[in-house]
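Worked Example 4.2. Read the sequence first, then its structure tokens.
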Amino acid sequence: MLKVEPASSYPPEEGRYLRGNDYSPVAVAVILVYDQEKAPPDIENLVRVGLESGAALSGTIQTENIGIEKLIGNIVANPNIRYLVIFGPESPGHQTGDALLMLLENGVDERKRIIGAKALTPYLFNLPMEFIARFRRQVRLINLLDEGDPDLLRRAVWSCYQEEPTSLQNCTLFDPGAYPEGPLSGRLTWRVTRPQSEPKDEAERRQRERLRDLIARAKRATEKKRERERP
């Protein structure tokens, strides 16, 4: 079974995760519905269960935009990761689990909005399209949303690195080996750190441009008036 070295910078993005076996075929993302500082011990325990069961990376994910961007950046830097387990209760605000499901199913539109996502701001502005496309080809999602049993998480991770096909709920899982292309490396460039402030469609973008133009013209008119009034 082919395994490869991850990118030298792997994992390139910082976050609330633990690093395990670089040659494991699975990463674990536990949905976080609390502020990071207020996360209950049960959530931290699930992260450790994922790691101790054999995951390459195991951590929490909170947002449907920057959180997903960081997750993708880390996964495409390691071609050995072929599965992503999403676990824990869905976030009623961010709808992060749904956004991941829709991303793998539908991709993004020309503005990098996740097609079909229920979240308010499921935009991946900071990711190259190459990273998004590669993530969708490389990874298969194991949907365990709204599950909280540590034993189920252990079983899910274990199933992913078996050589023989293994059943888990409605899935058949096994380790297919590394994705047959090299790692995508390099840290993300954070052009947009407040996706919720970005225009949501072309009409809103044009409206903002018109407003900026009006403000600029008003400023120029004020400056000219002041120049005329100077003694």
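Now turn to a second chain, presented in exactly the same format:
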Amino acid sequence: MSSPTVTGDTPRIGTDENPLIHPVTGERLVFTKRAAETGGEVLEFLLRMAPGGFIATPHVHPYAEERFEVGGAPVMIQVGRSQRLYQPGEVAVVPAGVPHNWWNPGTEESATLIQLRPAMDMETVFETMFGLAADGKVNRKGMPNPLQMMVLARAYRREVTPPPPLSWFVGPLSAVLAPIGSRLGYLARYDRYSGPRRD
């Protein structure tokens, strides 16, 4: 699979013409409302998940609420210690700060509309994680190497963290290891995946 490089003659990443694709987890993502379009209020995207597809890791959005409107096939959503199979048409809302995870346990593709409020910089997180995956720079669970993860964990600690107790260690560890990763060339944002900055 070719890398999702952003160039002048390639459609912007995360569109119908050029979706973000994670070859390991079976996810395909198209942004429907970007942070810049909503003044940072919301990031909305359609996430299609292949049968047996999964999110790379359970996680927490410390300051953002996440809303799932299930479509296509049913998906299993775990919020805290509780998990339930959500049918098409059902909605799940995960409050900020609550660990969650989800996956497609069925034999048909799911198509879940997701909103994050506020958007923060989750758009770049998705572009980076999916870009690294498309370039073959993740393990069989869909995660980049530890130093790359420390750079991302430090840069996006307001957007997303591991659940406790892992988060208790990742925060301090990333403060030490992220600078090392940066010196070795690992970045929190790549023009290759997100395009030139539009600041």
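Notes for the reader: The longest helix spans residues 166-183. The longest strand covers residues 110-117.
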